[in-house]
Write a structure and sequence with these properties.
Elements: E1 10-13, E2 16-22, E3 26-30, H1 33-42, E4 55-59, E5 64-68, H2 73-86, E6 98-101, E7 112-114, E8 118-123, H3 129-135, E9 138-143, E10 150-155, H4 162-170, E11 175-180, E12 183-187, H5 220-224, E13 241-246, E14 256-257, E15 261-262, H6 278-287, E16 304-309, E17 312-315, E18 318-322, H7 323-336, E19 340-343, H8 351-363, E20 372-375, E21 397-403, E22 431-434, E23 438-441, E24 454-458, H9 461-478, H10 484-494, H11 514-521, E25 525-535, E26 540-550, E27 556-567, E28 573-580, E29 586-587, E30 594-607, E31 610-624, E32 652-655, E33 659-666, E34 673-675, E35 689-693, E36 698-702
Parallel strand pairs: 13-16, 13-19, 14-16, 15-16, 19-20, 20-21, 21-22
Antiparallel strand pairs: 1-2, 2-6, 3-5, 4-5, 6-7, 7-12, 8-10, 8-11, 9-10, 12-18, 17-18, 23-24, 25-26, 25-34, 26-30, 27-28, 27-29, 27-31, 30-31, 31-32, 31-33, 35-36
Length: about 700
């Protein structure tokens, strides 16, 4: 392995040194199109092991070819000799150096960093850019890119090391940061290798809304996260868009688009290469339309997708991008108005990429912050990949691992049988989501993974992440006013714990639960139980009613009033119960507080021989949003906010939607009807109650 100069064996990311080593996996070669074809034809002959031939990866943006070897000294020497021979002994044809980082150079998922002589430099106020550029033989490529005040520059001398110059500049006074703009060669975070058919379906089922999409029955992940069940609460909104930051995408028959962006070419056309189906597959999981008789149903089927292209495939399961392109893509997604960022990719640490995500957290959605989901990586190792490991540093940012049909962390030995990958784990993991054998959309026609418009075996933390991004979109459709850290709290607090009590390094807070999350997003809930009873000598029909008002969410809620009406067949009011608070009871956030009205007795229609009833309920309430996150960024346990005096000026009054019901029967038949059943997270403790019995004219008030 060649020696590195002292100022080349590291680079700076987020102010910290990241150690570099020469790559044993990759060798860069300068080649035109004709030479590329020759290299490809002769690649197999260069390998010392015919079973592991040298792969030739094309990077046309920089007129480079990268040879991917098996990591041994023999393979590196053979590839080097092969490259030199193929360019007729022209030493200038051997391309720029390729590095790996000591934390990312896993043999099963190598990542290459090619020093192409580009830097991103941002001066402190008052810095002299002209003098700096002249001294270090640098030329400006683009100003105010990829963030305001920064410049993309390149060396003007072939022999100069971009890494060495960046380090020298970064360590000078008057420079805010200087970093190499590496061309990053990263493995895609997925695999579509076929495996055994799933026969063990999730135990949770019973959706309130069942669409007619042909592949819905195969979407075990949708059922596992209890997604169809709350679709009667929300199926998303066209006003909410999710930026799928990936390989790009274009129009598809099964999801709706919002304007996107191609950060590679700096234009508004993110159409992918024909073989780059990764972004389209992620998009379908987020927002494929439901009940259209086609394909699948996404987690948030009424929401829209913004394709943001930051990379392109270069063969061998790898894609290519640069730090500047990634950062520009993230920032443009925020500026276009994306409500959620979905990131099914991994890269090395980069100051400008971290800055871009911080920009999303602080400036997105008019200052409320843009929620972010990012994949932990597929190496089955203790160590969450970048950018997912930023989660403890940025509010509203969730690091997403993958789980399987049995609610196991996906590993190489988990029951699903996919032995070639596993979900990375560690202290930064926030939640897990389904990531094995996921049916989803594919590039329309012959492109992508299949010859059709859908693929049924998409997987990896790549497929887990858009499940979480889709849930973020559902939550924001219910309450667009939420701040990004409130979305984070809702998802963590509503997740179904799978490992050790509280948070753990394999599952984070658990597997996401869409129903529980939307219940927690809605500010107030009711459960109404209605039973017809027959009283008096005439066996007149009455309604015995139990009403429970509860708050499973992150807001503090006060019930101001409630009205339950029993109505005649023509819709006129036959009887009613009215509660008027002065003030009403307060239901603290996540406290289990509720208010229950029991044994309310109201007149219905008819008698035991022939009876019917119609009823409606509505209420008014005031709510207070939380003043700070319930979950500190590094906490493993959540806390319940202490009760404090409510600031009336900060309270927001609303009227709940009217809920209605009806039934009829005869000959003394009666049934008990439950409306709006509660989810797993709802408290079951009885609260204050009022009992009214018209037969005995008795009233009982119980305060707990």
């Amino acid at each position: 392995m060649p020696e590195l100069a002292e100022n080349e064996n590291y680079y700076y990311a987020d102010g910290e040194r990241v150690t570099l080593v020469p790559s044993r996996q990759f060798l860069a070669v300068r080649a035109d199109e004709e030479q590329v074809n020759t290299l490809s034809a002769r690649a197999g002959a260069a390998s010392p092991d015919p079973q592991q031939p040298v792969n030739v990866l094309r990077i046309p943006d920089h007129d480079l070819v990268v040879l991917k070897m098996d990591g041994t000294e023999g393979a590196a020497a053979a590839a080097g000799a092969f490259a030199m021979a193929d360019t007729a002994g022209d030493t200038s044809a051997v391309g720029p150096p390729v590095y790996e980082t000591v934390t990312e150079g896993h043999e099963d998922s190598p990542t290459g960093l090619v020093d192409v002589g580009e830097l991103i430099v941002k001066l402190a106020p008052g810095g002299n850019s002209a003098a700096l550029l002249k001294k270090h033989h640098l030329a400006v490529v683009t100003e105010d890119y990829p963030e305001p005040g920064a410049s993309l520059v390149r060396t003007t001398r072939e022999q100069d090391s971009g890494v060495a110059i960046a380090n020298e500049l970064h360590e000078q006074d008057g420079v805010e940061f200087a970093i190499p703009n590496f061309v990053r060669l990263s493995p895609r975070l997925h695999s579509v290798e076929e495996a055994a058919q799933v026969t063990d379906m999730p135990e949770e089922a019973g959706p309130s809304y069942t669409p007619n999409d042909p592949l819905l029955s195969s979407q075990w992940g949708i059922a596992k996260i209890r997604c169809p069940e709350p679709w009667n609460i929300s199926r998303g909104s066209s006003a909410i868009s999710v930026a799928v930051i990936d390989e790009g995408g274009n129009a598809h028959e099964d999801y709706s688009l919002a304007p996107g962006y191609d950060a590679r070419f700096n234009d508004n056309n993110p159409t992918p290469n024909s073989s780059d189906g990764h972004g389209v597959a992620c998009a379908g999981i987020v927002a494929a339309r439901a009940n259209n008789g086609r394909g699948i149903a996404g987690v948030a089927p009424n929401s829209r997708v913004r394709h943001i292209r930051i990379a392109y495939g270069i063969g061998g399961g790898f894609w290519s991008t640069t730090d500047a392109v990634i950062a520009a893509g993230v920032r443009r997604a925020v500026d276009l108005g994306a409500d959620v960022l979905s990131n099914s990719w991994g890269s090395g640490a980069s100051t400008v990429v971290t800055n871009a995500f911080r920009y999303a957290s602080t400036n997105g959605r008019g200052g409320k912050g843009t929620p972010i989901a990012a994949a932990t990586g597929n190496g089955d190792v203790l160590g969450v990949g970048y950018p997912a490991r930023l989660s403890p540093q940025i509010r509203g940012f969730l690091a997403v691992g993958a789980s399987n049909q049995w609610d196991q962390r996906k590993s190489k030995t988990s029951l699903d049988g996919e032995t070639w990958w596993g979900s990375n784990y560690g202290p930064q993991v926030d939640v897990v989501a389904p990531g094995v054998k996921i049916p989803t959309t594919d590039i329309m026609g012959a492109g992508g993974y299949s010859s059709g418009n859908y693929v049924t075996t998409f997987n990896g933390t790549s497929s887990a992440t858009p499940h979480v991004a889709g849930l973020m979109a559902l939550i924001l459709a219910v309450d667009p006013g939420l701040r990004s850290w409130e979305v984070e709290d809702i998802i963590k607090l509503s997740a179904k714990g799978l490992g050790a009590s509280g948070r753990d390094d394999h599952f984070g807070f658990g597997r996401i639960d869409a129903r529980a999350a939307l219940e927690a997003t809605s500010r107030i809930w009711s459960q109404t139980r209605v039973t017809p009873v027959f009283l008096g000598s005439g066996r007149d029909a009455y309604l015995r009613v139990r009403i429970r008002i509860f708050n499973p969410g992150i807001n503090t809620v006060r019930l101001n009033n409630l009205r339950f009406r029993s109505m005649a067949p023509d819709g006129s009011v036959r009887d009613e119960f009215v509660f008027q608070g002065n003030p009403g009871p307060v239901l603290s956030a996540r406290s289990g507080h509720d208010v229950t009205f029991t044994n309310l007795l109201l007149r219905a229609n008819g008698n035991s021989s022939r009876w019917s009833y119609r009823w409606s309920i509505n209420w008014g309430y005031t709510y207070w949003r939380p003043s700070s996150p319930a979950l500190p960024l590094s906490a493993a346990e959540f806390r319940v906010e202490e009760a404090v005096a409510l600031d009336e000026s900060q309270g927001l009054a609303e009227v709940g939607a009217t809920v209605e019901g009806d039934d009829e029967g005869g000959s003394g038949d009666s049934t008990t009807v439950d409306d709006m059943g509660v989810g797993e997270t709802a408290a079951t403790t009885d609260g204050d109650s009022v009992t009214i019995d018209r037969a005995t004219k008795g009233i009982t008030i119980c305060v707990r």
